[in-house]
Amino acid sequence: MTPASFRTHRLEETDTGHYTELLSNDGKNDGVLVCAAHGGHVEPGTAEQAVDLAARLPAASCWACLGYDERQSPFELWHPPSSAFSPDEYPLLAEIADRNFETVVSFHGLGDDRVLVGGRIDTDAKRYVSDRLEDAVSSPVESVSTGPYAGVNPGNFVNWLARDGRGLQLEQSRTVRIDERDAVNSVLEGLLEEDVL
Fold this sequence. Notes:
CATH class: Alpha Beta
Number of helices: 7
Structural class: alpha/beta
Radius of gyration: 15 Å
CATH superfamily: Poly-gamma-glutamate hydrolase, zinc-binding motif
Strand order of the largest sheet: 1-2-4-3-5-8-6-7
Order of helices and strands: EEEHEHHEEHEHEHH
């Protein structure tokens, strides 16, 4: 995957910034989708992480949204809940909304120094991902199935984009998603090769 393989769609503009949707998709892949719905300066490092992981895989699609603004807070402007993303409002998301991907991974940012492994993916798989990440990053890692960052809402895009309604959501500290991105993506790449996810 190269930057040229991405298409973009400008969703919104301000006087000093913009909110853009990004998609790399061959039109037929239904194996792996990697997402970062709060990329750019909304949750810094997440979109880059998604692009990097998708590029490592033999066949993967990548969808992200990136928000930038020089004067206003991109987080305040463009951080809808993960359950609020609709194909009706995101045209590139609409192109893959009915694909039923076998595996969907969504990267998010967390304000504190932890990594939370969530989503509706099987509990044993979440624990396995947590154990592998615990050995690879400096922040504490835990699997979660309840709470505000668990990502278990069926309306969360990471879940409804997945064939069985069970996506994998990673909430990560700034250090992990920026400085330790390679370590995280190496773990995920290995788990996908092992068919754990």
